[in-house]
Specification:
GO terms for molecular function: FAD binding; iron ion binding; oxidoreductase activity. It comes from Pseudooceanicola albus. The chain has 1014 residues and is an alpha+beta fold. It has 4 domains: 199 residues, CO dehydrogenase flavoprotein, C-terminal domain (Enolase-like, domain 1), CATH 3.30.390; 226 residues, Aldehyde Oxidoreductase, domain 4 (2-Layer Sandwich); 193 residues, Aldehyde Oxidoreductase, domain 3 (Alpha-Beta Complex); 135 residues, Aldehyde oxidase/xanthine dehydrogenase, molybdopterin binding domain (Aldehyde Oxidoreductase, domain 4), CATH 3.30.365. The chain is built from 31 helices and 43 strands. A hairpin with a 5-residue loop joins strand 39 and strand 40. The protein starts with a strand and ends with a helix. The chain binds flavin-adenine dinucleotide (FAD). The site of flavin-adenine dinucleotide (FAD) has 31 residues, from strand 2, helix 2, helix 5 and helix 6. Flavin-adenine dinucleotide (FAD) binds next to strand 2, helix 2, helix 5 and helix 6.
């Protein structure tokens, strides 16, 4: 790509005549490249030649959008708030916005009658858009008496436009003398609505019929369907927005629908936050480096002889591989190695549950992210060029993309053994008889999305030969298991592989399975040099593990008083091409299918299907959150039928502490469901609240009941050690720091238990060569592993420290204690130590090996320790767009004592926001085995404008007397019940429950319209 710098507009015109593409801010061009548009060979930089600045209502074409936003221009400045993000607006220009063609601002410029000055003479904007010629020099707009604008995107924060609309009116008295209406944005061609404009002329906005106006606009708007929203929806929101803007009228709405729970006394609660935390609030030790961007991650590492790796992925979602020819790629200068399945010395298969995934595909590809070959080269460009030279011949096979069809007789097989990965069936009592006698029955099918983890650091790292083994430095969630899996693939003893997995820029389950390690390891072994590799965001989107999409059909019955009688559940989950941890996800969903309620008669069946839709697997919530969505909506639906408020319905059916779990297993002590219900009932969230005139308020709740740990069937053990070395109390723990606060929690737990300062503690973690195997950093098991490890080792280390100090100081052991910085005199007022840790010398490690607490049930995978919570949501449902705005979220949690307040709160707030994304906007759309959502630009994770204005988190920290199990894990509970809380709030607002997540705005709009029509 060549960039020319013309000295004048004449020279620029000559360059353009020869094919150079003009570039001003370059932001729209970059957006197009990220979406796959080819980069022009030659560009001419014109931004510096074009007029910049604002004079009256005339704007220079090179004026940055942000400057226009701040200028207070009619309509434009208001509209620009919704165009791109501030950083883009500071670079992007008005000329580029028009040249882009799909700019959001077009309707606003059209209704303001924009006239352009161009190098080809003056032209009206509409004319220029129809036939763009020459360079835009300036844009003049005409003000109106009244105007309005609305952008509807994939989320509230900046995102591609679904549709933008604008109007400008000139008034004569109370009547419209001239109306300009326009739509555009994204795939909608920018256009004025001439028919409706003519109809409006002479009318009084206060008396005209808004329904007639809506109908006219809807008929006139031309908008396409796309994978994200339908044409009908686009026409509808254009009509709603313009009609509401012009008339200020919307149909009347009925009041709230859900009975308000009776007030209760709040349980004992710790309010979590910097202000309320007092001395318990400590800034996390990893935070300053992280917020400054100074934390060195494994993907940041560079060394002089390091090669760059790249992976060749499948060209088809399902195909037989006929041949792989790497000759040309190997011959390319700068290429050091190409590896294929032929280079695998051991087992060409991996997978945490079943080893069904090839490290490099040999005979078949099963999804679009499958790895076929990998290249190590001197630089990224050479490695990418080499990928293009690898010739793979395929024979496409029939696609399996629908999970129900995948399990139908005669379906094409993704794996030779068929498409049923696993099945879980459980029946108890006589469900059919119970349904027959029930007073109320509700049935719905809930659908959940293929959510992407969206971690900031995509999959990657580096691997280098070390002696006669390998040093593997790739972000992961269980180094010892990664080592085991690699040892099988490489036929290399585990002892010869050292795996460093931390620090990680986010995991959420998506780095639990092997990612780039097999390809990188093969390249490092073949070249004998360190090789690095990090997936681009697009490659991570294509190849990375996602949350398993599910459909859950649930039928639930209660008697006339709201007592639950029976439930039938049919779950279907999409595993994608390989199993990974999906069987565990499905089992966990099934284990939670009655939630925290007692249901005597049940009939449940869960099935997991192989398809060609990417790969599913571990993701925070791990099946529990999907099932909780269904269960907690069913409870509200039945409450509505039985005439009960949501809390009363729940209390009537709640588990009794100590009673068996859903599978009949023993459940651990300290159940806090009643306290969580008390907290929900005591909340002020049920009070009426103000929303905008175009919104309907709603309030909802849901309970959380989630098992922690791996369950009864998988091995679930941990090792831990504590020692004094180099003047630091070192905690050796094999867990990983993914941003969840492991390091802070260890600092807090050790300091609290020993009596030293947090700053005396150093954590050695995430390294199989330096820390013991503490098991996986998953399943919310970390909190217990940390607490138990410290509890087991601290007394022993404390005794050794004091004994050694007593000898050195010549004091009696009983007269000493551990204080911040070292060993002090027991009972002394002076905080200064008599002997500093640094002067004490090293003290050998105290070690612990313990099992995560398990239940007594082995017919299926059952959890023993549970966590509890109540999520409450206030929402505002937009009657123009169907968008759901989160006004306030509350999460009341009970997971035992809080180890580190900032980490705990971070887990809860983070989970709530990630759960809000699952609920309202995040889904990787796939069609025919290909990703429709290819990158973050169309993957709508919540931005700052999507998070609620208020979030409030509490912790109920007590344990039952004699409870020996300490803090429970806090990583997942915040996620469990956010979706049903929001769904129940939407039902409060509209009278209907959304059963598809993310909630389609089109469906929510239809719900609110149906309600106002009723
Ligand atoms: C992350 C991101 C988010 C974005 N979000 C939005 C959004 O929400 N809404 C939106 O509308 N846009 C969005 N954009 C696109 C873009 O930023 C804006 O449209 C911006 O106004 C483009 O201005 P620019 O100067 O950077 O254009 P450039 O990229 O330089 O050029 C864009 C096109 O216009 C042509 N061009 C440039 N200047 C002129 C001129 N004076 N006369 C004629 N043709 C010209 C170029 O040849 C090119 O074809 C986004 C971009 C990014 C990267």
């Amino acid at each position: 790509m060549k960039i020319l710098h013309p000295a004048s507009l004449t020279q620029a015109a000559e360059m353009m005549a020869e094919g150079a593409v003009p570039v001003a801010g370059g932001t729209a061009l970059q957006l197009q490249w990220s979406q796959g548009r080819a980069r022009p060979a030659v560009m001419a930089e014109v931004g510096s030649l074009l007029p910049r600045g604002i004079r009256g209502l005339t704007i220079g074409a090179a004026t940055p959008l942000e400057e226009i936003r701040r200028a207070g221009l009619p309509l434009l400045s208001e509209a620009l708030r919704d165009v791109a993000a501030p950083g883009i607006r500071r670079m992007g220009t008005l000329g580029g916005q028009i040249g882009f063609g799909a700019g959001c601002l077009m309707p606003a410029l059209l209704v303001l009658g924009a006239q352009l000055e161009t190098t080809e003479g003056p032209r009206a904007l509409a004319e220029y858009l129809a036939e763009p010629r020459g360079l835009i020099l300036s844009v003049a707009i005409r003000p109106a008496d009244r105007h309005g604008w609305r952008k509807t995107g994939l989320r509230a924060a900046f995102s591609p436009a679904i549709l933008t609309s604008a109007f400008a009116l000139k008034m004569k008295g109370s009547r419209i003398s001239m109306a300009h209406l326009a739509v555009g944005g994204g795939p909608v061609p920018p256009r004025r609505l001439a028919g409706t404009e003519a109809w409006l002329a002479g009318q009084d906005p206060a008396t005209l019929d808004p329904d007639a106006l809506r109908a006219r606009i809807e008929a006139e708007v031309q908008a396409p369907d796309c994978a994200f929203r339908s044409a009908r929806y686009r026409r509808r929101i254009a009509a709603n927005a313009l009609a509401f803007g012009i008339t200020g009228q919307l149909p009347a709405q009925p009041g709230r629908r859900t009975p308000i729970p009776a007030r209760a006394l709040p349980p004992q609660q710790t309010v979590l936050g910097r202000a309320s935390g007092g001395e318990r609030w400590q800034t996390r030790p990893d935070m300053p480096a992280k917020v400054r961007g100074q934390m060195p991650y494994l993907t940041d590492h560079r060394a002089p002889d390091m090669l760059v790796g790249r992976i060749l992925r499948a060209a088809h979602p399902h195909a037989e591989i006929l041949s792989i020819d790497t000759t040309e790629a190997e011959a390319l200068a700068g290429v050091e190695a190409v590896v294929t399945h032929r280079d695998i010395p051991g087992l060409n298969a991996f997978g945490i549950v079943f080893q069904d995934q090839p490290a490099l595909c040999a005979d078949k590809v099963r999804h679009i992210g499958d790895m076929v070959a990998a290249v190590a080269a001197r630089d990224a460009a050479t490695a990418e060029a080499a990928l293009a030279l690898i010739r793979v011949a395929y024979r496409p096979l029939p696609l399996v993309t629908d999970m129900a069809a995948a399990l139908a007789p005669g379906a094409a097989k993704v794996h030779a053994g068929g498409n049923l990965v696993s099945e879980v069936v459980l029946e108890r009592g006589d469900a059919e008889a119970a349904f027959a006698t029930a007073a109320h029955v509700v049935e719905a099918t809930y659908t959940t999305p293929r959510q992407m983890h969206g971690f900031m650091e995509t999959e990657g790292g580096w691997i280098a030969p070390e002696g006669d083994g390998l040093l593997v430095c790739v972000g992961g969630q269980h180094g010892a298991r990664d080592r085991l899996q690699l040892s099988r693939i490489l036929a290399l003893p585990e002892a010869k592989i050292r795996v460093i997995t931390s620090p990680i820029g986010g995991g959420f389950g998506g780095k639990d399975e092997l990612t780039v390690q097999p390809a990188l390891a093969l390249l490092a072994l073949k070249t004998g040099r360190p090789v690095r590799l990090q997936l681009s965001r697009a490659e991570s989107t294509r190849a990375g593990i996602k949350r398993n999409p599910m459909t859950i059909r649930m039928r639930t019955a209660c008697d006339g008083e709201g007592l639950l009688l029976a439930q039938e559940v049919a779950l279907l989950a999409d595993s994608g091409a390989y199993a990974s941890l999906s069987p565990g996800v499905m089992e966990t969903a099934m284990e939670h299918c009655a939630g925290p309620y007692v249901i005597p008669n049940i009939r449940t069946r869960g099935r997991l299907a192989y398809t060609n839709n990417g790969i599913g697997g571990a993701f925070r919530g791990f099946g529990c959150n999907q099932m909780t969505y269904a269960v907690e909506c069913q409870i509200d639906r039945l409450a509505a039928k039985a005439g009960l408020d949501p809390a009363a319905m729940r209390r009537r059916n709640l588990r009794v502490p100590g009673s068996p779990g859903y599978l009949g297993q023993a459940v651990g002590p300290s159940e806090r469901l009643h306290e969580m219900l008390d907290a929900a009932q005591a909340s002020a969230i049920w009070a009426p609240f103000e929303v905008a005139p175009e919104e309907i308020p709603g309030t909802g709740m849901a309970l959380t009941y989630q098992g922690t740990g791996l369950g009864t069937i998988p091995e679930d053990e941990a090792r831990f050690a504590l020692r004094l070395k180099d003047g630091k109390v070192q905690a050796l723990c094999g867990l990983d720091e993914m941003g969840q606060g492991l390091v802070a929690s260890l600092h807090a737990a050790v300091a609290e238990r020993l009596g030293c300062a947090r700053s005396d503690v150093e954590v050695i973690f995430g390294d199989t060569g330096a820390a013991p195997d503490s098991g996986s950093t998953t399943a919310a098991r970390g909190g217990y592993v940390v607490w138990k490890g410290v509890s087991e080792t601290a007394p022993g280390l404390s005794a050794r420290l004091l004994g050694q100090a007593a000898q050195r100081l010549g004091h009696a052991v009983e007269s000493l204690c551990i204080v911040p910085g070292g060993i002090g005199a027991r009972g002394a007022n002076a905080p200064a130590p008599l002997l500093r840790f640094a002067d004490l010398g090293d003290v050998t490690a105290e070690e612990a090996h313990y099992a995560f607490p398990k239940s007594d049930y082995f017919k299926g995978n059952a959890r023993f320790l549970f966590t509890y919570g109540a999520t409450l949501a206030r929402v505002a449902v937009n009657r123009i767009t169907g968008a759901v705005r989160l006004v306030r979220l509350e999460f009341h949690s009970a997971a035992g004592p809080v180890i580190d307040m900032a980490s705990y709160l971070g887990q809860m707030e983070g989970a709530l926001i990630q759960g809000a994304g699952f609920t309202l906007s995040e889904d990787i759309l796939m069609r025919d085995g290909q990703m429709v959502t290819k990158n973050f630009d169309t993957y709508a994770m919540p931005g700052v404008r999507d998070v609620p204005g208020e979030m409030h988190v509490t912790a109920h920290e007590t344990l039952d007397p004699g409870d020996p199990f300490g803090p429970r894990g806090a990583g997942e509970i915040g996620f469990s019940s956010i979706t049903p809380a929001i769904a129940n709030a939407v039902a409060d607002a509209t009278g209907r429950w959304p059963a598809t997540a993310p909630f389609p705005p089109e469906e929510i709009l239809a719900m609110s319209e149906a309600e106002s029509a009723a």
